[in-house]
Design a protein that fits this description.
Helices cover 36% and strands 23% of the residues. It is α/β, with parallel strands linked by helices and 554 residues long. The protein has a domain of 96 residues: GMP Synthetase, Chain A, domain 3. The protein starts with 12 loop residues before the first helix and ends in a 15-residue tail after the last strand.
Length: 554
């Protein structure tokens, strides 16, 4: 039986804010770095007051009941905007700050946004956008709060009078910014609150915890869990200024909880191994340390931070919990972090499921799985093959209302029993009964004899190879019409040089292809049936294009 933590029930983000302000009034909700480098501490009581004032101000501009977009870097102002709109104004539309003006225009137009609130770093993008909506800079939020407080003092009761239907549209999130294919995922506040509660039943977060927000807040994973779930728990939120400064900001803010995607965790792991390997006898120490941690059994969480003190100091010395979402994390990396003394959680979900629907339970965390369905969530596998691999389908209070103004796509997204069809393939681990993610249906390679191959399986096996920085497996159609499994690799060129392979040589492509084919034959193909074997390798000299959550775009 899985351990379940006590939670408080709620249906709206306003309830979340008000109850947290009551329970944790003088606790820090945010630590904000000012332009001069000073830190400003925002308590839960102050946060609620600021949110209320900003909501009242926005209502005074005629925005009550409207859709309001928010775009910009992770910041206190972004969080205030989101919280003010959802708790006392209307519907929030988070927008990816990496999008270009035409894509932003597309989203603002399709969403029927009445206004967009934006930070100075995306001002040029907003200026180049032709959408017919009001433009409001978050730079002016301190002034807006002052005006809102004045309105409240003069008797404005728009906050109190604003009615929130927890089951109606509360957040509208576009999964793509490209014209013609963007899908507006409609989430209710009940969807989002159900996900917060479901996550907190399995993951222990306390008012003493602190998180460093790195992943983009427009993404549901960071917004629901890195922002809202932390506020629900009375924890403190700090914002990383950039990915380049994450290492120094770990030491500056000393977080205890960290949300990450596999690419980021892998980079963190590579950094640890590189530093240790540079010290004489470092790798021997690493292996002995991991063995000692393993032998410590149930005392490992207490022992490991002492054995790997330098690793913990690199992350500020307080980090305890790492939640990994968006894609599968290599099991060996998961296990290493556990041996270093960190509590690791894998989770699975999509924007359409608010986001998490499957999550490691606190006392059931297996490295090569993503866990079990969250409380109140039903999961099934449909159209399973002989290996037990089928499409993951989800039903429960976390599942979206549908796609905005798109009844056809909404109908196609659900089966006859009301289960949301994720498009992801999974299977149940026989040993633990937990779910494994196999790949995406749309990425599947189909051979001439009808055999189905999941490219993620091949990529997964290649990940441990030090010479491979990034890779994508795909089906390559030959001149005779047959399909073979191929891999495109972005190498670690520094690592290749240690093997005497230099990218500057005229025949470097051929040498690298031969090198990787040999590696693949020895480490990948021997672990796969013949029909899945990689037959072709090509080389990239630049990184693959990625989404803002660091997933490779295929």
């Amino acid at each position: 039986m899985s351990l379940v933590y006590d939670v408080r029930n709620l249906c709206t983000i306003r309830e979340l804010l008000e109850t947290s302000a009551d329970l944790y009034a003088e606790n820090d909700a945010f630590i904000v770095k000012e332009k001069n480098g000073d830190h400003r501490h925002v308590t839960y009581a102050s946060l609620l007051k600021n949110v209320k004032a900003l909501a009242v101000y926005l209502n005074s501009r005629g925005l009550s009941g409207q859709k309001i977009a928010v775009m910009g870097k992770n910041s206190y102002e972004w969080a205030l905007t989101y919280l003010a709109v959802t708790s006392g104004v209307g519907v929030i539309v988070p927008v990816d700050k990496e999008l270009k003006s035409p894509e932003v225009n597309n989203i603002l137009t399709m969403s029927d946004a009445a206004a967009v609130m934006y930070s100075p770093d995306v001002a040029a993008t907003i200026d180049g956008c032709g959408a017919d909506c009001e433009r409001i800079s978050t730079e002016n939020i301190p002034s807006f709060i002052e005006q809102g407080n004045e309105l409240i003092e003069n008797g404005d009761r728009s906050w109190e009078n604003h009615k929130i239907d927890p089951f109606a549209l509360g957040s509208l999130i576009y999964t793509s910014g490209t014209t013609g294919v963007a899908k507006g995922v409609m989430l209710s506040q009940y969807n989002i609150c159900s996900d917060i509660i479901g996550t907190r039943k399995e993951v222990f977060i306390t008012p003493e915890d602190r998180t460093l927000s790195v992943l983009p807040l427009h993404h549901t994973y960071e917004c629901t869990l890195g922002l809202l779930a932390m506020l629900y728990s009375g924890a403190c939120i700090c914002f990383a200024s950039s990915l380049l400064r994450v290492v120094s900001e770990f030491k500056e803010y000393k977080p205890t909880v960290f949300l990450a995607v596999p690419q980021l965790v892998k980079a963190m792991h590579n950094g640890i191994i590189k530093k240790i390997s540079e010290v004489k006898g470092g790798m021997l120490f690493l292996n002995v340390g991991k063995t000692l941690t393993t032998l410590s059994g149930r005392f490992a969480p207490q022992v490991a931070p002492h054995i790997f003190k330098s690793v913990h100091e690199a992350f500020g010395g307080k980090l305890k919990t790492i939640l990994v979402g968006a894609a599968a994390l290599e099991p060996a990396i998961f296990r290493d972090f556990e041996k270093f003394g960190f509590k690791m959680y894998n989770g699975y979900g999509l924007t359409e499921t608010s986001p998490l629907c499957i999550l490691h339970h606190d006392d059931m965390r297996k490295a090569d799985t993503v866990g079990l369905p969250m409380s109140g969530v039903s999961v099934k596998l449909i159209n399973c093959n002989e290996e037990g691999v089928g499409e993951i389908a989800v039903k429960g209070p976390i599942v979206m209302l549908g796609y905005y103004n798109d009844e056809k796509r909404t109908r196609e997204a659900f089966d006859d029993d009301g289960y949301f069809l994720t498009g992801d393939l999974g299977m149940i681990d026989k040993e633990s009964g937990q779910y494994k993610i196999v790949g995406r249906i749309k990425n599947m390679i189909v051979t001439d004899n009808g055999k189905k191959i999941f490219p993620e399986e091949i990529e997964y096996l290649l990940e441990p190879c030090k010479s491979v920085k990034e890779c994508v497996a795909y089906g390559d159609v030959q001149e005779d019409g047959s399909t073979v499994v191929a891999v495109k690799i972005y190498p670690d060129f520094d690592e290749l040089e240690t093997h005497g392979i230099y990218k500057e040589l005229p025949d470097s492509d051929t040498l690298m292809q031969e090198y990787f084919l040999k590696i693949i034959k020895e480490t990948v193909n021997r672990r796969l049936p013949n029909y899945k074997a990689v037959r072709k390798v090509s080389i990239r000299y630049t990184e693959f294009e990625k989404t803002t959550t660091h997933k490779i775009k295929r």
